[in-house]
Amino acid sequence: MGRGKFKGKPTGHRNFSTHEELISGSSSRPRTFKREEVKEDVEEGSEEEIEKEEEPEKRKGTLGLIEIENPNLVKPKNLKAGNVDMEKTTELSRREREEIEKQKAHERYMRLQEQGKTEQARKDLAKEQKKGEARK
């Protein structure tokens, strides 16, 4: 009979790879450890070899063929302190730019309103004058 949500004892064991398995490559799961070992070996070499071996990263699909500056792509949020470029200003998103433009336009309109240069301000002044004349 089915026992519902809970399973019996033999399921759910977690298998961990040892460091030796990771380095030798017998483990099927993490392939990034091999790359890190290769990078460490390259770093130990001379700088001339590093300059010769610099190659762009291979990317799958069309991303490797076409270089596009897409503003909609997610920007990396976590940067190391050494990688931060202080001169580079971060671009605002479209929504943020529109919000700032909207606020500036509203402030500009309110300044003109106070000076009496907008149509709404002229109408208000005309109403006030009519009320003032009617009171007299």
Automatic annotation (TrEMBL):
Ranges of residues in domain Casein kinase substrate phosphoprotein PP28: 70-127
Region annotation Disordered: where it falls in the sequence: 1-64, 88-136
Biased composition (Acidic residues): 39-54
Protein name (database record): Casein kinase substrate phosphoprotein PP28 domain-containing protein
Family annotation (InterPro entries): Casein_kinase_sb_PP28, HAP28
Composition skew (Basic residues), residue ranges: 1-12
